[in-house]
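Protein Record: Sequence and Backbone Structure Tokens
======================================================
Scope: a single protein chain, as residues and as a discrete description of its fold.
Tokens: labelled as protein backbone structure tokens, with as many entries as the chain has residues.
Position: the record begins directly beneath this header, with no further notes in between.
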Amino acid sequence: MKQLMLGNEAFARGLYEAGCSFVSSYPGTPSTEITEYAAKFTEIYAEWAPNEKVAMETAFGASLAGKRSFCGMKHVGLNVAADPLFTISYTGVNGGMIIGVADDPGMHSSQNEQDSRNYAKAAKIPMLEPSDSFEALEFTKIAYELSETYDTPVLMKICTRVAHSQSIVQTSERVETAQKAYKKNPQKYIMMPAFAKLRHPIVEARTKALIEYAESTSLNRIEYGTEKQLGIITSSTAYQYVKEVCGDTISVLKIGMIWPMPEKLLRDFCASVEKVIVVEELDGFIEEHCRNLRLDVIGKELFSNIGELSQNAVAAALGLTYDDGKCLDESIPNRPPVMCAGCPHRGLYYTLSKLKLNVIGDIGCYTLGATAPLNAVDTCVCMGASVSGVHGFNKASGGESEQKTVAVIGDSTFMHSGMTGLVNIAYNHSNSTVIILDNSITGMTGHQQNPTTGFNLKGDPAAKVDLEALCHALGIARVRVVDPYDLMQCEEAVKEELSVAEPSVIISRRPCALLKYVKHKKPIKVDMQKCISCKMCMKIGCPAISMTGGKAKIDTTLCTGCGVCMQLCRPGALQEVAQ
């Protein structure tokens, strides 16, 4: 049956049709929906793991037991999982195993735009790269066949545009695969040096065999155009842009198996045209491979390795014109992201900004505390870096620095990779204050459950980590909970914990304002007679508050009645409405 599907949904459908029965992932835009869609199939066991490393190791365990498995993550998550990635390349698999990774060219929701194709080459693992939803489904099924035929995990790389765009797919029935028997094999699975040395030649031989496969597979195909003066080598979304701009006039070699790449096929294609241009996003990965084969190609001389490509960018680089017939008469003003009205992080960040503290930040929607008018975050590196970073900062600076520096981290991020940093603080003793922003959900990626929420991916009751008890167990004696809607309580807690000469944790606890079960108060009202236009209410950056005619105005469609703004209004112009 033909259906219109998102790339991520098609990816999940491919897992289902291929007989995958085990999924373990960590949410990360733009990969998250693959696992959420997979979880809807009763035939697939699906879970959120605490982080990507755990997810990959868990999926490998399921493969070891003989099941077809999958783990998904975004590109920076693959960094977290790199340790098992490189070693399971040596061990190989039992049941087929796919590792899904979603890159984010343009950094729509990421802190860098690394190119995950480099991981496939470095880890010596095959990687497939679909260019639309149809291929996302079909390539997934092929990936399992490759995994089991060549005894290897297989990387499936998508990007934001493939993950979150729609195209037609052809669905089919699920093909159940029998669970493979597990057989003890120390030389295959125990990667101590003596056995690992024996596995490395096997990996190299596998790569050679996969190169032969790449020469003839339908994953890589030549589409000859009406003229052969120019040939283009491309993949992923860049292929779509090339086809939209060039139509059927220019010959194209589409690479669907991005690693290992073919050699003869590339040579034959380059010999069949007069000039070859490589069109690809981010790194010159295909271009470098062509140059290693001594092929005369043009690539990054025309295309930047920064940001996304587009139809217009491709057309301009090729000296062509492209008109999609769609334009706006007026430019759209920038709309930078902000914390939601009623966000529990706002009050805490206002306090940190008011106290003029150094704030070592982390990854999550709370990173938006860095934006004006709060300007309350100094750093954002990677998951868990705030806790480790504040320890290093304070150890290096000492003295007064310890009394004006804090780390902030979300509850899900703390479970992901903040715990070990807190152990380091306790073990190596720095007078560091860590603030856990507990909004009872994984907020930034769309409200996924995590080990602190008490529910699993399916929404079933699950073990719930007690953050206070956990912090005590990790060696922190001083642990306290505050309500971020109470500005006085927040300020007192922060001042007190910074003043003591020992490590401490403050848990800022209130559920995300967007959670369906959260009941809000009625919107705040403005007494125009009392408003003196001091604009103190604007200092918290709430999108529900604006100034109109010199007076504060509350957008009642946004306001949640949290009352944080009321605590800043000395004249008492902002008032609570009786419930």
Observations:
- The longest helix spans residues 193-216.
- The first strand starts at residue 2 and ends at 6.
- Residues 90 and 199 are 6 Å apart (CA to CA).
- The radius of gyration is 27 Å.
